[in-house]
Write a structure and sequence with these properties.
Length: about 150
């Protein structure tokens, strides 16, 4: 056990997060996501029974978002819904990021299902949760923790 580390951050998940470099992406996905096939040759971590909102909060407690890109957070757009629609789970995850000052409204983008799959195939890792709400899938782009540049 470690102090001040969210209990959902398993040893394998902590290892993967530490190994990720600036600009690498991690997917946090629902239980129905095609994680095994999309993660082929990449890290796949399964958190059965865990809600995606809880998994996102745990990951965001240690993962800096990339400040060098406009939208370091992506989520899967719900097919057949009007532009701008977000499910309750999507609203909860994104509102939590705002509340904790980890991101603001302009820093996320909705991706259609196939664009999301294409990015997931390139991700450093996929975390599949036990979330049963469909379209509860997020991509986070890792940033850096650094000292100020010395002149």
């Amino acid at each position: 056990m470690l102090k001040n580390i969210n209990r959902l951050l398993t040893p394998m998940l902590l290892k993967v997060l530490a190994e990720m470099g600036h600009g690498d992406e991690i997917v946090l996905a629902d239980a129905n996501f095609t994680a095994s096939s999309l993660a082929a040759g990449r890290h796949l971590i399964v958190l059965p029974g865990i809600a995606v909102a809880d998994a996102c909060a745990a990951v965001m407690s240690v993962l800096p978002l990339d400040e060098a890109v406009a939208q370091p957070v992506g989520y899967m757009f719900v097919s057949g819904k009007p532009t701008g629609y977000m499910s309750a789970v999507q609203r909860r995850v994104l509102a939590s990021m705002v509340e904790l000052r980890q991101a603001h409204a302009g820093q996320w983008e909705a991706l259609d299902r196939f664009a999301f799959y294409a990015r997931a195939k390139q991700a450093f890792a996929i975390v599949q949760t036990g979330e049963m709400q469909p379209y509860a899938n997020f991509i986070l782009k890792k940033g850096v923790i650094a000292h100020e540049l010395a002149d």
